[in-house]
Design brief:
alpha/beta; 2-enoyl-CoA Hydratase, Chain A, domain 1; 2 domains; 6-stranded mixed beta sheet; 8 strands
Length: 326
């Protein structure tokens, strides 16, 4: 049994004949560029890919690019998404490309209702479904109001007022009540929201692997009541065909870097790693315990020549004892 992270990861990836990638942080264009470059530039590519990912979400366009890169480079193998913690919003969109999902006890996906900026607000967003749910509520309430008023008018008149006249009166009352409310709906914003929702549907259907059950993308976009809704392993089994708990190798790796795999790194401290490359570098490092103790497995301090060869990784943050709590 491996007693260090480097051995644990290498044994795990060797056993699955897989390349390994790790991403922790928000999903945006710059971070997607880094991860896609790592995926596309791997030379001695293996058949399969294992992706450790934790994120609160971000840009669906960036998530789509990462997913397309994984599908293009591992089209003849399988993609395994390994979820040790939060993988919300755009992260859930990304893992639709996976052929299998592995959940730790804190693994969590989320709905795909697109978040849009609130009008006249800074750094505030809302679900694209909010406006449509409001419209649905207005329609349902107005019909109920019309029906109740019409029936009440007929009943209280003792039949003296015909159904046609009662309907006209009830209609006028209902319009008077609900017109000021519906007038607040901006048709232009309604169109913007509609197009935003289509992003999740179109990207999701394009990325969806055979692991995604029929109707899953539509459910993720339209049917969950809140953007933060927890989709754990049990719920995920309703949406995906191949869902399992962590195996021994994944549990072993989690034991070394659980804080990294559970809570996404903050913006500016995000981590994108080609695990085989980083762990090979660690193996080649000096064996002096005093020296290796100060180096992290992922994002070690590169030599100057190493930085020149791997510009795409020079921003990787050090995951040492001080940051991981380990």
């Amino acid at each position: 049994m491996p007693n260090d992270l480097s051995s644990a990861v290498n044994e795990y990836l060797d056993g699955k004949n897989a390349d390994g990638f790790l991403y922790s942080g928000p999903i945006n264009r710059d971070n997607a560029d880094r991860l896609v470059k790592l995926i596309d530039s791997r030379l001695d590519r293996r058949k399969n890919a294992c992706v450790f990912i934790t994120t609160f979400g971000g840009d669906p366009n960036a998530a789509y690019r990462i997913g397309r890169s994984l599908k293009a480079n591992y089209r003849d193998g399988t993609i395994l998404a390994i979820l040790g913690g939060y993988c919300k919003s755009a992260g859930t969109l990304l893992v639709l490309c996976a052929d299998e999902l592995a959940f730790g006890c804190f693994g969590e996906l989320g709905p795909l209702d697109t978040q849009i900026d609130k009008p006249n607000e800074i750094l505030a967003s809302e679900s694209g479904l909010d406006l449509f749910q409001a419209l649905k509520q207005i329609m349902e309430s107005s019909f109920d109001s019309f029906e109740q008023q019409m029936i009440s008018i007929i009943r209280h008149s003792g039949g003296a007022i015909t159904t046609k006249v009662a309907a006209e009166i009830a209609s006028s009352l209902t319009v008077g009540i609900f017109s000021p409310i519906s007038a607040q709906v901006d048709p232009l914003r309604l169109g913007v929201v509609k197009r935003a929702i289509q992003i999740g549907l179109n990207y999701g259907n394009r990325l969806a692997s055979s692991n995604v059950k029929e109707g899953t993308v539509e459910k993720l976009v339209n049917e969950y009541p809140a953007h933060g809704f927890v989709i754990d392993q049990i719920e995920a089994r309703l949406l995906f065909k191949n869902v399992r708990s962590f195996d021994e190798g994944e549990i072993r790796i989690l034991g070394f870097i659980e804080p990294l795999l559970r809570i996404p790194a903050s913006d500016g401290n995000e981590l994108a790693s080609d695990l085989r490359m980083d762990f090979d570098r660690q193996k080649a490092a000096p064996e002096d315990p005093a020296e290796t103790a100060d180096q992290s497995i992922i994002g070690v301090e590169h030599a100057e020549s190493d930085i020149e060869q791997h510009d795409d990784q020079e921003e990787l943050s050090t995951i040492g004892a001080g940051r991981s709590g380990g």
